[in-house]
Protein backbone atom coordinates (compact mmCIF):
# COMPACT_ATOMS: atom_id res chain seq x y z
CA UNK A 1 0.00 0.00 0.00
CA UNK A 2 1.26 3.49 -0.74
CA UNK A 3 0.42 6.84 0.75
CA UNK A 4 -0.73 9.00 -2.10
CA UNK A 5 -1.99 12.47 -2.63
CA UNK A 6 -1.24 14.37 -5.78
CA UNK A 7 0.94 12.29 -8.08
CA UNK A 8 3.76 13.65 -10.20
CA UNK A 9 3.95 12.54 -13.82
CA UNK A 10 7.33 12.93 -15.46
CA UNK A 11 8.18 12.84 -19.11
CA UNK A 12 9.87 14.53 -22.02
CA UNK A 13 8.15 16.67 -24.61
CA UNK A 14 9.04 18.11 -27.94
CA UNK A 15 10.73 21.48 -27.75
CA UNK A 16 8.18 24.30 -27.55
CA UNK A 17 8.45 26.93 -30.28
CA UNK A 18 10.28 30.18 -29.66
CA UNK A 19 8.49 33.17 -28.17
CA UNK A 20 7.53 34.59 -31.58
CA UNK A 21 6.88 31.26 -33.21
CA UNK A 22 3.80 30.55 -35.11
CA UNK A 23 0.48 29.59 -33.81
CA UNK A 24 -2.38 27.91 -35.60
CA UNK A 25 -3.23 24.36 -34.81
CA UNK A 26 -3.51 21.84 -37.56
CA UNK A 27 -5.90 18.92 -37.01
CA UNK A 28 -4.27 16.35 -34.79
CA UNK A 29 -3.76 13.04 -36.58
CA UNK A 30 -5.72 10.11 -35.26
CA UNK A 31 -3.97 8.48 -32.35
CA UNK A 32 -4.56 4.90 -31.36
CA UNK A 33 -5.39 3.95 -27.80
CA UNK A 34 -1.80 3.20 -26.85
CA UNK A 35 -0.45 6.33 -28.55
CA UNK A 36 -2.93 8.58 -26.78
CA UNK A 37 -2.16 6.99 -23.41
CA UNK A 38 1.57 7.39 -24.02
CA UNK A 39 1.08 11.07 -24.87
CA UNK A 40 -1.04 11.62 -21.74
CA UNK A 41 1.49 9.89 -19.49
CA UNK A 42 4.22 12.26 -20.72
CA UNK A 43 2.36 15.36 -19.50
CA UNK A 44 3.47 16.73 -16.09
CA UNK A 45 0.78 16.94 -13.42
CA UNK A 46 0.96 20.73 -13.23
CA UNK A 47 0.44 20.98 -17.00
CA UNK A 48 -2.61 18.69 -16.77
CA UNK A 49 -4.20 21.13 -14.32
CA UNK A 50 -3.50 24.03 -16.67
CA UNK A 51 -4.91 22.13 -19.66
CA UNK A 52 -8.19 21.84 -17.77
CA UNK A 53 -8.18 25.63 -17.30
CA UNK A 54 -7.42 26.19 -21.00
CA UNK A 55 -10.31 23.91 -21.89
CA UNK A 56 -12.72 25.90 -19.74
CA UNK A 57 -11.60 29.16 -21.34
CA UNK A 58 -11.67 27.75 -24.87
CA UNK A 59 -15.12 26.24 -24.36
CA UNK A 60 -16.39 29.67 -23.39
CA UNK A 61 -14.79 31.18 -26.48
CA UNK A 62 -16.38 28.52 -28.68
CA UNK A 63 -19.80 29.30 -27.23
CA UNK A 64 -19.21 32.95 -28.15
CA UNK A 65 -18.40 32.00 -31.74
CA UNK A 66 -14.65 32.68 -31.55
CA UNK A 67 -12.86 30.79 -34.33
CA UNK A 68 -9.20 31.35 -33.45
CA UNK A 69 -7.17 32.77 -30.59
CA UNK A 70 -3.54 33.79 -30.18
CA UNK A 71 -1.35 32.42 -27.40
CA UNK A 72 -1.22 35.88 -25.84
CA UNK A 73 -5.01 36.17 -25.75
CA UNK A 74 -5.45 32.66 -24.39
CA UNK A 75 -2.69 33.06 -21.79
CA UNK A 76 -4.24 36.27 -20.46
CA UNK A 77 -7.67 34.65 -20.23
CA UNK A 78 -6.20 31.60 -18.46
CA UNK A 79 -3.91 33.59 -16.15
CA UNK A 80 -0.57 32.12 -17.30
CA UNK A 81 2.32 33.48 -19.33
CA UNK A 82 2.28 32.78 -23.06
CA UNK A 83 5.57 30.83 -23.08
CA UNK A 84 4.24 28.37 -20.49
CA UNK A 85 0.99 28.05 -22.40
CA UNK A 86 2.79 27.20 -25.64
CA UNK A 87 4.89 24.59 -23.86
CA UNK A 88 1.77 23.04 -22.31
CA UNK A 89 0.08 22.87 -25.70
CA UNK A 90 3.18 21.32 -27.23
CA UNK A 91 2.57 18.27 -25.01
CA UNK A 92 -0.61 17.58 -26.97
CA UNK A 93 0.90 18.34 -30.37
CA UNK A 94 -0.42 21.88 -30.89
CA UNK A 95 2.05 24.48 -32.14
CA UNK A 96 0.00 26.88 -34.28
CA UNK A 97 0.76 29.26 -37.14
CA UNK A 98 2.17 32.75 -36.89
CA UNK A 99 -0.27 35.61 -37.26
CA UNK A 100 -3.42 33.50 -37.20
CA UNK A 101 -3.72 31.86 -33.80
CA UNK A 102 -4.89 28.52 -32.47
CA UNK A 103 -8.10 27.14 -33.95
CA UNK A 104 -10.46 27.02 -30.99
CA UNK A 105 -12.50 24.02 -32.16
CA UNK A 106 -9.42 21.92 -32.93
CA UNK A 107 -7.74 22.82 -29.65
CA UNK A 108 -10.85 21.96 -27.64
CA UNK A 109 -10.99 18.56 -29.35
CA UNK A 110 -7.31 17.86 -28.69
CA UNK A 111 -7.47 18.78 -25.01
CA UNK A 112 -10.68 16.80 -24.47
CA UNK A 113 -9.08 13.72 -26.01
CA UNK A 114 -5.95 13.96 -23.88
CA UNK A 115 -7.98 14.58 -20.71
CA UNK A 116 -10.19 11.59 -21.44
CA UNK A 117 -13.32 13.67 -21.93
CA UNK A 118 -14.50 12.01 -25.12
CA UNK A 119 -16.68 9.80 -22.92
CA UNK A 120 -18.62 10.57 -19.76
CA UNK A 121 -17.07 9.71 -16.42
CA UNK A 122 -19.69 8.38 -14.03
CA UNK A 123 -19.32 9.83 -10.51
CA UNK A 124 -20.38 8.45 -7.11
CA UNK A 125 -20.62 10.68 -4.03
CA UNK A 126 -20.25 9.10 -0.61
CA UNK A 127 -21.43 11.10 2.40
CA UNK A 128 -24.64 13.02 1.81
CA UNK A 129 -24.25 15.77 4.39
CA UNK A 130 -24.23 19.45 3.50
CA UNK A 131 -21.26 19.10 1.13
CA UNK A 132 -22.57 15.88 -0.41
CA UNK A 133 -25.97 17.49 -1.01
CA UNK A 134 -24.30 20.44 -2.72
CA UNK A 135 -22.20 18.18 -4.96
CA UNK A 136 -25.17 15.98 -5.87
CA UNK A 137 -27.27 19.00 -6.80
CA UNK A 138 -24.58 20.87 -8.73
CA UNK A 139 -25.77 21.19 -12.30
CA UNK A 140 -22.36 21.95 -13.78
CA UNK A 141 -20.98 18.40 -13.56
CA UNK A 142 -23.13 16.69 -16.23
CA UNK A 143 -22.44 19.42 -18.78
CA UNK A 144 -18.72 18.83 -18.42
CA UNK A 145 -18.99 15.08 -18.76
CA UNK A 146 -19.21 14.10 -15.08
CA UNK A 147 -22.76 12.99 -14.31
CA UNK A 148 -23.34 12.03 -10.69
CA UNK A 149 -24.97 8.59 -10.95
CA UNK A 150 -24.74 7.17 -7.42
CA UNK A 151 -25.06 8.48 -3.86
CA UNK A 152 -24.19 6.63 -0.65
CA UNK A 153 -24.57 7.21 3.08
CA UNK A 154 -25.17 5.29 6.33
CA UNK A 155 -28.05 7.38 7.71
CA UNK A 156 -31.20 5.22 7.73
CA UNK A 157 -33.35 8.33 7.23
CA UNK A 158 -31.62 9.01 3.90
CA UNK A 159 -32.03 5.55 2.38
CA UNK A 160 -34.02 5.79 -0.84
CA UNK A 161 -34.44 9.56 -0.55
CA UNK A 162 -33.70 11.24 -3.90
CA UNK A 163 -31.05 13.96 -3.85
CA UNK A 164 -30.58 15.69 -7.18
CA UNK A 165 -32.92 13.06 -8.62
CA UNK A 166 -30.78 10.10 -7.44
CA UNK A 167 -31.90 7.84 -4.56
CA UNK A 168 -29.38 7.49 -1.74
CA UNK A 169 -28.09 3.95 -1.21
CA UNK A 170 -26.26 2.40 1.74
CA UNK A 171 -22.48 2.22 1.60
CA UNK A 172 -22.76 -1.57 1.76
CA UNK A 173 -24.18 -1.37 -1.77
CA UNK A 174 -21.12 0.43 -3.18
CA UNK A 175 -19.70 -2.63 -5.00
CA UNK A 176 -22.91 -3.62 -6.77
CA UNK A 177 -24.16 -0.10 -7.56
CA UNK A 178 -20.78 1.15 -8.79
CA UNK A 179 -20.41 -1.88 -11.04
CA UNK A 180 -23.93 -1.55 -12.44
CA UNK A 181 -23.54 2.18 -13.14
CA UNK A 182 -19.94 1.94 -14.34
CA UNK A 183 -18.66 4.45 -11.82
CA UNK A 184 -15.13 5.62 -12.64
CA UNK A 185 -14.69 8.44 -10.08
CA UNK A 186 -15.56 8.35 -6.39
CA UNK A 187 -16.01 11.48 -4.28
CA UNK A 188 -15.54 11.16 -0.53
CA UNK A 189 -17.45 13.79 1.47
CA UNK A 190 -17.64 11.93 4.79
CA UNK A 191 -16.38 12.86 8.27
CA UNK A 192 -12.64 12.09 8.63
CA UNK A 193 -13.00 8.88 10.69
CA UNK A 194 -15.08 7.22 7.96
CA UNK A 195 -13.02 8.26 4.95
CA UNK A 196 -10.53 5.37 4.86
CA UNK A 197 -13.21 2.68 5.16
CA UNK A 198 -15.21 4.35 2.37
CA UNK A 199 -12.09 4.58 0.24
CA UNK A 200 -11.44 0.86 0.74
CA UNK A 201 -14.97 0.05 -0.42
CA UNK A 202 -14.61 2.19 -3.52
CA UNK A 203 -11.29 0.55 -4.39
CA UNK A 204 -12.82 -2.90 -3.88
CA UNK A 205 -15.57 -1.85 -6.29
CA UNK A 206 -12.95 -1.11 -8.96
CA UNK A 207 -12.98 2.69 -8.65
CA UNK A 208 -9.41 3.86 -9.30
CA UNK A 209 -9.85 7.66 -9.21
CA UNK A 210 -10.95 9.34 -5.98
CA UNK A 211 -11.60 12.96 -5.05
CA UNK A 212 -11.23 13.28 -1.27
CA UNK A 213 -12.76 16.17 0.68
CA UNK A 214 -12.05 14.59 4.08
CA UNK A 215 -8.99 16.10 5.84
CA UNK A 216 -7.10 12.79 6.03
CA UNK A 217 -4.40 11.09 3.97
CA UNK A 218 -5.81 7.96 2.37
CA UNK A 219 -3.86 4.73 2.00
CA UNK A 220 -4.47 3.27 -1.45
CA UNK A 221 -2.79 0.89 -3.91
CA UNK A 222 -0.35 2.32 -6.43
CA UNK A 223 -2.93 1.91 -9.18
CA UNK A 224 -5.38 4.32 -7.50
CA UNK A 225 -5.17 8.07 -8.05
CA UNK A 226 -6.28 10.38 -5.24
CA UNK A 227 -6.85 14.12 -5.42
CA UNK A 228 -7.32 15.88 -2.09
CA UNK A 229 -9.36 19.03 -1.55
CA UNK A 230 -8.90 20.55 1.92
CA UNK A 231 -10.76 23.84 2.14
CA UNK A 232 -9.35 24.61 5.58
CA UNK A 233 -5.80 24.34 4.26
CA UNK A 234 -6.65 26.64 1.36
CA UNK A 235 -8.05 29.21 3.80
CA UNK A 236 -4.91 28.93 5.95
CA UNK A 237 -2.78 29.62 2.87
CA UNK A 238 -4.86 32.70 2.13
CA UNK A 239 -4.51 33.76 5.76
CA UNK A 240 -0.73 33.61 5.33
CA UNK A 241 -0.92 35.98 2.38
CA UNK A 242 -3.18 38.36 4.32
CA UNK A 243 -0.71 38.39 7.21
CA UNK A 244 2.28 38.85 4.88
CA UNK A 245 0.66 41.84 3.21
CA UNK A 246 -0.09 43.34 6.60
CA UNK A 247 3.54 42.87 7.69
CA UNK A 248 4.79 44.67 4.59
CA UNK A 249 2.29 47.50 4.72
CA UNK A 250 3.90 50.91 5.41
CA UNK A 251 3.76 51.66 9.12
CA UNK A 252 1.93 54.73 10.29
CA UNK A 253 4.24 57.33 11.83
CA UNK A 254 3.45 57.45 15.53
CA UNK A 255 4.60 61.08 15.75
CA UNK A 256 3.52 62.83 12.58
CA UNK A 257 5.63 65.76 11.53
CA UNK A 258 4.49 69.13 12.73
CA UNK A 259 3.49 71.64 10.11
CA UNK A 260 4.31 75.32 10.50
CA UNK A 261 2.72 77.71 8.06
CA UNK A 262 1.91 74.71 5.86
CA UNK A 263 5.56 73.49 5.80
CA UNK A 264 6.29 69.99 7.07
CA UNK A 265 8.98 69.80 9.77
CA UNK A 266 10.07 66.15 10.18
CA UNK A 267 12.19 66.96 13.26
CA UNK A 268 9.24 68.24 15.18
CA UNK A 269 11.05 71.52 15.92
CA UNK A 270 9.11 74.68 15.49
CA UNK A 271 10.19 76.70 12.49
CA UNK A 272 9.69 80.43 12.66
CA UNK A 273 9.40 82.57 9.62
UniProtKB/TrEMBL annotation:
KW Transcription (keyword) present: yes
SUPFAM superfamilies for the chain: NAD(P)-binding Rossmann-fold domains, Winged helix' DNA-binding domain
Pfam families the UniProt entry points to: CoA_binding, Put_DNA-bind_N
Compositional bias per record (Low complexity), positions renumbered to this chain: 260-273
Gene3D superfamilies found in the cross-reference section: NAD(P)-binding Rossmann-like Domain, Winged helix-like DNA-binding domain superfamily/Winged helix DNA-binding domain
Segments of this protein annotated with the region Disordered: 1-30, 249-273
Keyword line: Cytoplasm, DNA-binding, NAD, Repressor, Transcription, Transcription regulation
Domain CoA-binding: 116-217
Role played: Modulates transcription in response to changes in cellular NADH/NAD(+) redox state.
UniProt family annotation: Belongs to the transcriptional regulatory Rex family.
Name of the molecule in the record: Redox-sensing transcriptional repressor Rex
Organism ancestry: Bacteria, Bacillati, Actinomycetota, Actinomycetes, Pseudonocardiales
Gene of this entry: rex
Amino acid sequence: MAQRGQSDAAGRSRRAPAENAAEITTPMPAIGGNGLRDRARAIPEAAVARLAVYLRVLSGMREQGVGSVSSEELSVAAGVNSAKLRKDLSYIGSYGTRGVGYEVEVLVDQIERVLGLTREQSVAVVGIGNLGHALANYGGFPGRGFPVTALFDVDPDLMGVPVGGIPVAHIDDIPSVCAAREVTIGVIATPPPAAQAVCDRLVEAGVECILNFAPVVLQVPETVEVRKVDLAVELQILSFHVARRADHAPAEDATPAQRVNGVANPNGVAVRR
